[in-house]
Design a protein that fits this description.
Elements: E1 2-4, E2 7-9, E3 29-33, E4 39-41, H1 44-49, E5 57-62, E6 68-72, H2 73-81, H3 91-102, E7 105-108, E8 114-116, H4 119-124, E9 130-136, E10 139-144, H5 145-157, H6 159-168, E11 177-178, E12 181-182
Antiparallel strand pairs: 1-2, 3-9, 4-8, 5-6, 5-7, 6-10, 9-10, 11-12
Length: 183
């Protein structure tokens, strides 16, 4: 898929969902606190990057890195629309659907820009009260703050190695993911 104005097109070249840069990328990291009800204030920079009509509802799913990933519901639906659907899928595709859809939850954002993260997901994501919200291109990740700080240090230490590996795999760049599974 390639975004062409408001529409999406299939891109046989890559066999994956792709977007042009007309969609604003999410970036940055924000140190926040979950309140006593496990509500998280989505940073205003992130909310501003999302189309307001698209961001009323979000989808939360556990990503491949075991962190909680947030997508706007509309973006998640667009990705889902263009995934292959089969009457008798192979077991791997069924398992991928279990991960991407069976474990995803819809969250509503209140007028203050907060979402309620279910206790079960707070535990799965190993979240304490202190969290870091990280913009990752097309989604937001929610990290335990101390885990993010350690990860950030590791990224800094391995900067040259990561850049070299990324250059080697740049041919597959641009594929969209749901919970970390290339589509």
């Amino acid at each position: 898929m390639v975004e062409n104005g408001p529409s999406w097109e299939w891109s046989p070249k890559s066999g994956s969902i792709q977007r042009e840069s007309t969609v604003r990328p999410l970036f940055g990291n924000y140190e926040l606190t979950l309140d006593e009800k496990n509500r998280l204030l989505v940073p205003s920079d992130i909310r501003k990057a999302w189309n307001p009509e698209d961001a009323e509802s979000l989808v939360i799913v556990s990503g491949v890195n075991r962190k909680l990933w947030l997508y706007t519901e509309k973006f998640y639906e667009k990705m889902a629309e263009h995934m292959e659907s089969e009457l008798a899928p192979e077991e791997e595709k069924v398992l991928k659907d279990h991960m991407n859809f069976g474990r995803a939850l819809r969250l509503d954002m209140d007028k203050s820009g907060r979402v309620l993260i279910p206790e079960k997901l707070v535990k799965k994501g190993n979240l304490g009260r202190e969290v870091t919200v990280v913009g990752i291109r097309d989604h937001v990740e929610i990290w335990n703050r101390s885990e993010w700080n350690a990860h950030e240090e590791d990224l800094e230490t391995r900067r040259a190695e990561i850049a070299a590996r990324a250059r080697k795999s740049s041919k597959s760049a641009g594929s969209a993911t749901v919970g970390g599974s290339a589509q």
